[in-house]
Every structure is written in C-alpha cells, then in structure tokens.
Amino acid sequence: MDMHSTAGLCQHPFVLVGTQCVHIIPAKYTWHDARNQCGLVGGDLFVVDDCDQYHKVALYLDEQDYLYYWIGGSDEAVEGQWRWVDGSPMDMGLPYWENTFVLEQEPDNPGQQNCLELNCAWMYRFSSAWCSDARRVICEADPI
Ligand SMILES: [Ca+2]
Ligand SMILES: [Ca+2]
C-alpha cells in the first residue's frame, strides 16, 4: 500500500472540509431516512461541536446552492435535551442556534420539532424542524 497517497484524505464520496470528511446528499429525505442514507455510504449525519470547524463548514456550504440540510442532532429521546447522534450533548444558543427573531429563538415548537436542521438562509445556524420534513443531507464519514 502506498502510504503517501491516502493518509489524511477522505474515502469517496466524502471530501475533506476543515478537519472532517463530509458528504452532501442532494436528494431530500426525512431525518431518519437521511441518517440511513449516510449509513449506506459509510457515515452518519454530520456532527459539529467546534466553532472553528463550524465556520469552515459554513464556508463550504456557501459554495453549494442549497439552503436547508439535516444534520445529526435531535431531542426525540427526551424533549428539550438536544443530543448529537454520537450521544454527546449539544451546545445551545450562540454561535450555533438561530436567534434572528427575538421572540422565536430556536429551538422552538417544543414537542413538535425534534430534528436538527442547518439553515443557510439563517446564517448557517441551527433550527429545530419536523423530522418528517424532506431536506438535503450532510453526512460525516465514520472514523477509520
Ligand atoms: Ca423538540
Ligand atoms: Ca424550529
């Protein structure tokens, strides 16, 4: 095996964005189907908990033409307790969550919107959305 060619790179179809191997699925799925689709290519829904990496991903998404994506968070297990799909707790508030509308701080619609959307129309911020909605998908490769 050539030790020089693959080190640090991502397996197809993933591409390196900052420190993560990321793949965007341009078709639209419900949140749970989106998670399955990521599994089919060797990953899971995208998780980001580092501000610098979050910024790099936002710049990458700015090069795409889509506005709304599913990423790997939900509060389906316990209402109000947002968790990443890897089981880790999620930072709430800024800089991640949308707060453009003072009276509509995300996450809103408790008990109804249980899945995590990344919304490029809202400064790439997080918002809660109905899990049954169809969104494009950001996947992250499983660790090698
Ligand atoms: Ca909820
Ligand atoms: Ca919401």
Task: Please write out the topology.
Elements: E1 15-17, E2 20-29, H1 31-40, E3 43-45, H2 51-62, E4 68-74, E5 83-84, E6 115-119, E7 125-129, E8 135-141
Parallel strand pairs: 4-8
Antiparallel strand pairs: 1-2, 2-8, 3-8, 4-5, 4-6, 6-7
Bound molecules: calcium ion (2 copies).
One calcium ion binds next to loops.
Name the structural class: alpha+beta
- What's the CATH superfamily, by name? Mannose-Binding Protein A, subunit A
> Can you tell me the CATH class?
Alpha Beta
Counted by DSSP, the helix tally is 2
Dominant shape: globular
Q: Indicate how many domains the architecture comprises.
A: 1
Query: Taking all residues together, what is the mean pLDDT?
Result: 91
Uncertain runs are 1-7
Domain C-type lectin: 17-140
Pfam family, one: Lectin_C
Organism: Hyalella azteca
Protein name: CD209 antigen-like protein 2
